[in-house]
Amino acid sequence: MELSETHLALAISFGLGLLVGLQREWKESEIAGIRTFPLITLLGTLTVTLGADQASWLTAAGLVAVAFLLTVANLAKIRAKTFDFGMTTEVAALLMFVVGCALGVGLTGPAVVTAGITAVLLHWKDRLHGIVNSLTGKDLKAVMNLALIGLIILPLLPDETYGPYEVLNPYDIWRMVVLIVGISMVAYVAYKLLGARVGSILGGIFGGLISSTATTVSYARQTKESPELSGLAALVVLIASTIVNIRVLIEIGIVAPNLLRDALIPMVLMLLLMIAECFAMYFPLRNQKTEPPNHDNPAQLKPAIIFGVLYAAVLFIVAAARDIFGEQALYWIAGISGLTDVDAITLSTAKMFNEERIDGTTAWRVILIATMSNLVFKAGAVAMLGSRRLLFYVAISFGIAIAGGVLLLLFWPGIESTGLSSWIDSAGSQE
């Protein structure tokens, strides 16, 4: 290592040790503080840079020495009867020694990230303990189920393609399950952390990310008993349905980033239209209050398996229909499958685009039709479960959104190359 690089490593080592030491000093740690942590980190850097061929032995000796000093300090606390049995400072001290070693061998990035995470974790003690204490049994089960779905089941599945049309890959299918459950779980955690502070706006946003259909059903049922809440319930339902467009764009961006070149503008136009509707509805209704829904755990194993089966079925049906009937059949499938689930058709369409089975223009049109179909389904749920006033609001707002989507399908560039115009003509002639 060059002399200048050594000096830089020592400077960064000192700064990172100072950062963690500052936090420990502020917490009045009796083991190590603002002076001890920089010294420990510098010791780690020097044992690596000065050890040359014996660096591994010298590093091990340094780590043992730090551990011995920490043990002596704790023994002294036990004798003074001030020992609190906490191990956080001791583990942080050992970790910062290793951070110093990483800086000594030029691993600056990982060392800086590790030190930053250490400082944040130390400082957020009360907040993290508060989060854990606020968890219910259902919340903990959700975390464990997410670990089961993403960290245990996924690695065990074969990464091979089976069946006709070569679209059924167990690993890829379950990976999409992990993606959908992960998105819903992030929104669910944020919703739980905010608790009672979630208002109608955030309630609609989180509802759209967790499950816009469940949000619609929950608020529709409230209006059946309290029709005076219909206006605000319609706003929340509209916000949740608007967020579905953002969720779709996130899924496309993760699964098929290149598809965004075709899908971004029309999907964003649809999104902007629905946002404008949300603003138009928000101002006269912003002072009303409703009861936020109690969302179910989105990481349950049974719904995850059901979605996996649904996604695989849609994937197979889309591939088969395209091969047998041509691309115009995809629009019918999107309209049917989108009634109950937009995610499955969105992910299957993105996968087909990645495999160059369909072009970008066809792909975004299929996805847009699915989102419009889902609006129809939710309007039907409102008609069955909600008040007449809520149905009136939802019918108008969803009707405007669907009309905007139809205009995009009819007039956005590229219609001639998709077969959609003939599909529309054939549908009209059948009527």
UniProtKB/TrEMBL annotation:
Q: Which residues form the DUF4010 domain?
A: 178-386
User: Which stretches make up the MgtC/SapB/SrpB/YhiD N-terminal domain?
Assistant: 10-129
Source taxon at top rank: Bacteria
* The keyword Ligase is annotated on this UniProt entry: no
Membrane-crossing segments per the record: 33-50, 57-76, 96-122, 142-158, 173-191, 198-220, 232-256, 263-283, 303-322, 329-350, 362-383, 390-412
Q: What's in the keyword line of the UniProt record?
A: Membrane, Transmembrane, Transmembrane helix
Q: Which InterPro entries match?
A: DUF4010, MgtC_SapB_SrpB_YhiD_N
What is this protein's record name? MgtC family protein
> What species does this protein belong to?
Polystyrenella longa
